[in-house]
Amino acid sequence: MTKMLNLKLKVWRQDGPDDAGHFEDYSTTVADDASFLEMLDYVNEQLIADNREPIAFDHDCREGICGSCGLMINGQAHGPQKGTATCQLHMRKFNDGDHITIEPWRAAAFPIIKDLAVNRAAFDRIIESGGYITVNTGAAQDANETPVPKEAADAAMDAAACIGCGACVAACPNSAANLFTSAKIQHLNLLPQGQAERFGRTKAMVETMEDYFGSCTNYGECQEACPKEISVDFIAMMNRDYAKSMIVNRRRLGERKVG
Amino acid sequence: MALELDAKVPPGPIADKWDNHKFDLKLVNPNNRRKFTVLVVGTGLAGASAAASLGELGYNVKVFTYHDSPRRAHSIAAQGGINAAKNYRNDGDSVYRLFYDTIKGGDYRSREANVYRLAQVSGNIIDQCAAQGVPFAREYGGLLDNRSFGGAQVSRTFYARGQTGQQLLLGAYQALARQIQAGTVELYNRMEMQDVVVADGRAQGITCRDLLSGEIVSFAGHAVLLCTGGYGNVYFLSTNAKACNVTATWRAHRQGAAFANPCFTQIHPTCIPPADEFQSKLTLMSESLRNDGRIWVPTEFDEQRAPGDIPESERDYYLERKYPSFGNLVPRDVASRNSKTVVDEGRGVGPLKNGVYLDFSDAIERFGAETIKARYGNLFDMYERITGEDPYKVPMRIYPATHYTMGGLWVDYNLMTTIPGLFALGEANFSDHGANRLGASALMQGLADGYFVAPATVPGYLAGLLGTPVMDTSDPAFTQTVAESQSRIDRLVGIQGTRSPDHYHRELGKLVWDYCGMSRNRTGLEKALAEIPALREEFWSDVRVLGNPGGFNQSLEKALRVSDFMEMAELKVADALQREESCGGHFREEHQTADGEAQRDDEHFAFVGAWEWGGPDVQHDAVLNKEPLEFENVQLTQRSYK
């Protein structure tokens, strides 16, 4: 049966990228079967009724797949429930009288746009630098011409499940994006279709990543925060491929002087 | 003024039309392609695949999304799979059979030639996606796996776990990223289209609101592709993502593009019912659950007992009772309507009496909990996360929800709207699904349009513009459209009323759901036609939009979207009123057989209803144009699932 929860919220408000920002306190009462974002919707409706500007936050599908939402809830990326994005977190995970602190992702590479919304464009830059297989539309052969071992397809899918939310970066003490980057690299590197560009892709994406994000020192917080529970093993695989790319990078063969 | 609806269907046998047409289309020399600018609005399956493919060809492409990244588009949420006539199962599938199933599933309200082409390119889509590295499910031999889906007797659905939409979209997004890197495509994120600029009888560009700065900006192009999805959020509660909206297609409609069959909406039978008044959206549970779950409600009204305490004799397995041969596997529209009937009778279950049971206890007894877990584990987990109830122990509660819209902008065989140079792809157009879409066909259509159809037909249009530069955005055609977009914003912000945009969206959604939802009748539709304009007027005098319009302002974004839904809803209801028949997702209570099934009227309603904008008094000003549907290759039959 539905229970009502009285909550004290402490929410980060920041008027724009250049504003210093501050916490504001709100009290609200919501049903425990509401989702976390529905709780924020309700707070926003209350704010509008009081003629106060609602809290800005990114969200869209509310099914845990688009990766738009992402809040630091009591210091945990996406909150207390493991393997769950903010939008799929429900208020029954909280208790009557709880104090909840809500912050945006905090990372230099994710500048704050307003309140709880951040700019994650750096992720797109990493993908653009090599997160694809080069195949023009119409150039493909019959799909069954290239068998993919089931184990490889399954492992690639485990990596490809990444929703690009940025929780891994937010949870990392170094704001590193190694889990995100490795998930895409290994999704493609594990498949036969991805072999031709394997080392060039790895080098380009790792180096683009380093332009924006901090360095990985194996804390493993990213794996704990990931709503899709993507394994840090992919980081190890990426590091292996990156090291290899220094010696076997076929793209660099052309740079050698002849004679 | 009546529109001329020339579908431009090529002559010849249906199997040859597309090949012949591609040969007849004009081409653009590779050296000339970069002289053409194509604007692509939306980055879902249709938009991302079209932008990437046109970029590969060498056109100068600009792509727009209101999201922070192209990868967030709502195609990402599709679960089940994508159909293709590969016949890898050796079970008798063919292009013709996929064509036939799609026409029949759409209850004979789609255009034959478009649907045939969709089936023809379906196999190429799978090839393309596999080559891109989409991690489709595989068998142990390494070849592609298939699953079965509703409305077909062959196994032709390809899938990537329960995240097929995500993986296909990421494939298209990555192809797009490659073109962005190559410099053929320019990405504009957090940029929401506000209007189409039409001058000299053709589309010349768009205006957008930069969601970060609040500025209205203009972009000129030789062609504009709207890949902006459907209008399901007109109901407020739907399975669509929160930001999905009708603005792009509705603004195009106001500029002269015909809007076709707006009354056709798909209501998916297996969603989680709303829990309380905070409910912000509905979550779909894959229809595959109906393979093993049994749907029932108590025979007694106002039943107070827990489901486990209700004896067999006091349960009504109403689908099995009414449709003995198909039982729980009747098509989506039939299952949805029957749930509504029992809930309306007062036999609904759950705290709000707004659902029906989907019970797995028999299946668990027969196959064991482990087998059921292997089949549906992730869905059961999602259900528990949302409802707090364990479906291994208590029956799930489900209820239908709006899921997909078959109607959309009218397009010809080239996917061009009634505005020359303005194209509509994917869910944004009306062409392929008739009055009801089959499962796993939305992904197929989005990618068919984007990878294979538009890259052939758009150049056919562009070729005629060789040597014509894009219009200067300082031209009055642009500055005037910018001024109109700006004044709409100023007006909304200036109202300073008492209720939030969401309040009005909910009110509108409730009206449309009650009177133009799963079943419709003249009295209800007329009531809605009286109430929608009144609500719209109240919205325009009482909405409260706070914050700075010259910056990131989500209230203003919502208010702009709701203002377009307020008009579109009226057209949708008017369309439902004129269509005096029942077909697919459109059930008019006046038109049913003696045993309560949908009664089509092919003699009078085998047409596409393409509405022309006439003015702000939508129901009186809009003009209905009819494109007759001719069936040369399939025999029209009445569907029966008894």
Brief summary of the model shown:
Chain A is an alpha+beta fold and 259 residues long. Helix content of chain A is 33%, strand content 13%.
Which characteristics define this entry?
heterodimer; A: 259 residues; alpha+beta; Ubiquitin-like (UB roll); Fumarate Reductase Iron-sulfur Protein, Chain B, domain 2; 2 domains; 5-stranded mixed beta sheet; two-stranded antiparallel sheet; 7 strands; B: 642 residues; Flavocytochrome C3, Chain A, domain 1; Methane Monooxygenase Hydroxylase, Chain G, domain 1; 5-stranded parallel beta sheet; 5-stranded antiparallel beta sheet
Kindly describe this structure.
The complex is a heterodimer of chains A (259) and B (642). Chain A is an alpha+beta fold. Chain A folds into two domains: 4-114, Ubiquitin-like (UB roll), CATH 3.10.20; 120-255, Alpha-helical ferredoxin (Fumarate Reductase Iron-sulfur Protein, Chain B, domain 2). Chain A is 33% helix and 13% strand. Chain A is built from eight helices and seven strands; from the N terminus they run E-E-H-E-E-E-E-E-H-H-H-H-H-H-H. Chain A has helices at residues 36-49, 121-128, 150-160, 167-171, 178-189, 198-212, 221-225, 233-248; strands at 4-13, 22-31, 72-73, 76-77, 99-103, 112-114, 117-118. Chain A has a five-stranded mixed sheet. The longest helix of chain A is centred in the last third of the chain and has 16 residues, at 233-248. Chain A starts with a strand and ends in an 11-residue tail after the last helix. In chain A, 54% of the residues are buried. In chain B, the strands form five sheets. A five-stranded parallel sheet of chain B has the order 5-2-1-9-17. A five-stranded antiparallel sheet of chain B has the order 11-15-14-12-13. In chain B, strand 6 (191-199) and strand 7 form a beta hairpin. Chain B has helices at 17-24, 30-33, 45-57, 95-105, 112-132, 164-182, 247-254, 318-322, 332-347, 361-367, 369-387, 442-462, 476-495, 501-516, 522-542, 554-578, 602-605, 618-621; strands at 37-41, 60-64, 82-83, 157-158, 185-188, 191-199, 202-210, 216-220, 223-226, 259-260, 265-271, 294-298, 315-316, 356-359, 396-405, 408-409, 422-424, 607-612, 623-628. Chain B has 642 residues and is an alpha+beta fold. Among the domains of chain B are: 269-402, Succinate dehydrogenase/fumarate reductase flavoprotein, catalytic domain (Flavocytochrome C3, Chain A, domain 1, Alpha-Beta Complex); 476-606, Methane Monooxygenase Hydroxylase, Chain G, domain 1. The two termini of chain B are 45 Å apart. Classes of the chains: A alpha+beta (259), B alpha+beta (642).
